[in-house]
Amino acid sequence: MRTIVIFDIDGVLRDVTNSYRRALGDTVEHFTPGNYRPTMADIDSLKGEGLWNNDWEGSQELIYRYYEGVGKSRSDVSYSYEEIVHFFQCRYRGQDPENADTWDGYITQEPLLVDTDFFESLTNRGYHWGFFSGATKGSAEYILTRRLGLKDPVLVAMEDAPGKPDPTGLFLAVNSIRERDNIQESLPIIYLGDTVADMMTISRAKSIKPDHDLRAIAILPPHIHGQDNLISDYSQKMLDAGAQEVLTRVTDFLKG
Q1: For the chain, what is the HEC assignment?
Q2: Dist CA 191 CA 70 (whole Å)
């Protein structure tokens, strides 16, 4: 059966353990100054709340929570959101974060979790595919076009739609695929992601379009692979948030 498949990017197509998550840790540590660096478990716990898909906002939230923990209020924190974003981007992208040709930050070191053959196989099996990510367009295009070599993929990024779990971006990606591929009939829609917010996106999409066949599949992020206790807890969170299935790796999708 022909199906529309939308992919998240971070933790699904690329391992962001030592890039986005590392930049988040650096940022919180810098603005707390040196008193607190969140662990992977801290970051997982924050993202498990379903509200912090944006790592800039997540960094700011953990900074706020640190200062609240030492008896200060959020209004006492003098760092602006813009300062936090700039520091984060200099770690993640490099010292010239607006010029992709000179990026030398953590983004350049991200292990890929798929290759171009994976997407060719999707097409050959009748899937129509695209991407909806909370990453910036520059970061998303870096992985999709520069490193994976995909040609003009359908992409809805941070600048294009409200953050997840708002499903607006998901619908935009689906509509772009329908227009590109001239799809007239209603097809099942699958979204693959690695966070609670990703799963909640499908739950909210169902409430808006209950007549559509919408499915969420969770992908376990690489930083918990091989840790059975974490896998069990993480998988249950994904299922509770609306996942119909939990896969270890995104490439397992073609094995079903």
Answers
A1: CCEEEEECCECCCECCCCCHHHHHHHHHHHCCCCCCCCCHHHHHHHHCCCCCCCHHHHHHHHHHHHHHHCCCCHHHCCCCHHHHHHHHHHHHCCCCCCCHHHCCCHHHHCCECCCHHHHHHHHHCCEEEEEECCCCHHHHHHHHHHHCCCCCCCEECHHHCCCCCCCHHHHHHHHHHHHHCCCCCCCCEEEEECCHHHHHHHHHHHHHCCCCCEEEEEECCHHHCCCHHHHHHHHHHHHHCCCCEEECCHHHHHHC
A2: 40
Judge whether residue 119 has pLDDT over 80. Answer: yes
Query: Per residue in 156-199, pLDDT tens?
Result: 999 999 999 999 999 999 999 999 999 998 999 999 999 999 99
Q: List the one residue out of 143, 242, 138 whose CA is nearest residue 190.
A: 242
Query: According to the model, what pLDDT value does residue 142 have?
Result: 95
> Mind listing the domains of the chain with CATH numbers?
3-15+111-255 (3.40.50.1000), 20-108 (no CATH)
For residues 88-98, give the mean pLDDT.
Answer: 96
Q: pTM of the predicted model, to two decimals?
A: 0.89
Return the sign of the alpha-carbon dihedral for residues 78, 80, 85, 86. negative
Q: How many angstroms separate the CA atoms of 87 and 140, rounded?
A: 19
